[in-house]
Design a protein that fits this description.
Structural class: alpha/beta
Shape: globular
Helix content: 25-40%
Distance between the termini: 16 Å
Strand content: 15-25%
Largest sheet: 8 strands, mixed
Number of helices: 10
Radius of gyration: 21 Å
Oligomer: single chain
Strand order of the largest sheet: 6-7-8-3-9-10-12-11
Length: 347
């Protein structure tokens, strides 16, 4: 089993979630069917997310990193049920929401778990003004009963995300990329959520604008008591915002740690390779991290390798890696890794 955060003991897992857990994911799988032929028969599955488990504590920021195609965005969308999970449990405040019908799901998480997407253009209706776009979810959920109350709430929210309330009647094309992402954040916050999943929320922005949005997210977390799952391929950005970091590879979590330990001394060979690719300025007397170049291509998620999913590219591969799935174990206090280099193999 994989995890993020301090690993719960078997007793805690058996008896239920810890009291400080806002979100608990257990054995989450998201497999997309592959269909072929005239009759469109299912001939296989793309295992985008494969048996992932983790906990998110109230008020913290979890960073999820990995290369493109590793399943991190799919995992985020499965958590909020934009995709219907193939298997697994998703506990929000102790209630399993993985298989709830929409009529029960709506009051539970449609308000309390929101998502900020990578491309705000794709999630904004060009025919609707900013005020109309932000008031629509309020009307849908029956919040702020009249137009004046809704407008007042929206103007306060715009001010909170760094936009002047006078832009409430403007349309999406009248804003810059950074402003549109601020609108995306405002729309995620308009229903007063507890958990926000940011999916590559700054990757399409200029570096200077990225810093502004990251600082905004941190300020909002402090003011509103938010919890974040921050999904990104940019390890430098994640290092700035996250409290803990989980590393994904081919639909699996392979390592989790507090960010200081992970960036200073990565354990999993894949994490070591990822961090070695970050450009750094060499300081006098500082040891330069050796660049690790992985051989081979990323395997297809429709046919992942047996045993350890990373063994086809791992520079430390052992015979057991080809057949035995490594247990996600504690390799150091507060640090977990799925690798046979740490501890005895689970025979």
């Amino acid at each position: 089993m994989n995890g993020i955060g301090t690993a719960p003991s078997p007793e805690e897992l058996r008896d239920g979630l810890r009291s400080d857990t806002l979100l608990g994911v257990r054995n989450l799988k998201m497999h997309f069917p592959i269909k072929a032929g005239v009759l469109q028969r299912v001939v296989g599955h793309v295992k985008a997310v494969d048996d992932v488990s983790f906990d998110v504590k109230k008020g913290e920021t979890i960073g999820i990193v990995g290369e493109s195609g590793c399943g991190k965005s799919t995992m985020g969308r499965s958590i909020i049920r934009l995709y219907e999970p193939t298997a697994g449990e998703i506990f929000y405040n102790g209630t399993d929401i993985a298989k709830l019908p929409e009529r029960e799901l709506r009051p539970l998480i449609r308000r309390k778990i929101q998502m900020v997407f990578q491309d705000p253009n794709a999630s904004l209706n060009p025919r609707k003004s900013l005020g109309s776009a932000l008031s629509e979810p309020l009307r849908s959920h029956g919040l702020y009963g009249n137009k004046q109350e809704r407008q007042g709430h929206i103007e306060e929210l715009l001010d909170l995300v760094g936009l002047h309330p006078s832009v409430i009647n403007n349309y999406p094309h009248e804003f810059s990329g950074g402003q549109r992402q601020r609108i995306g954040i405002a729309r995620a916050l308009v229903l007063d959520p507890e958990l926000v999943i940011a999916d590559e929320a700054v990757s399409a922005l200029d570096v200077s604008v990225q810093a502004q949005i990251i600082n905004l997210l941190e300020d909002l977390q402090e003011k509103l008591g938010l919890t974040y799952i921050f999904i990104s391929h940019d390890l430098s950005v994640v290092r700035h915002i996250a409290d803990r970091v989980g590393v994904m590879y081919l639909g699996n979590l392979v390592e989790l740690s507090d960010k200081e330990s992970l960036y200073e001394e990565p354990l999993h060979p894949y994490t070591q390779a990822l961090l070695s690719a970050i450009p750094v300025i060499k300081k006098d007397g500082a040891q330069q991290r050796e660049r690790i170049v992985l051989k081979g291509d990323l395997p297809s998620p429709s046919s992942p390798p047996q045993g350890c999913v990373f063994h086809t590219r791992c520079p430390y591969k052992m015979p057991m890696c080809e057949t035995v799935v490594p247990e996600f174990r504690e390799a150091a206090p507060g640090r977990q890794v799925a690798c046979h280099l740490y501890g005895e193999p689970p025979f």
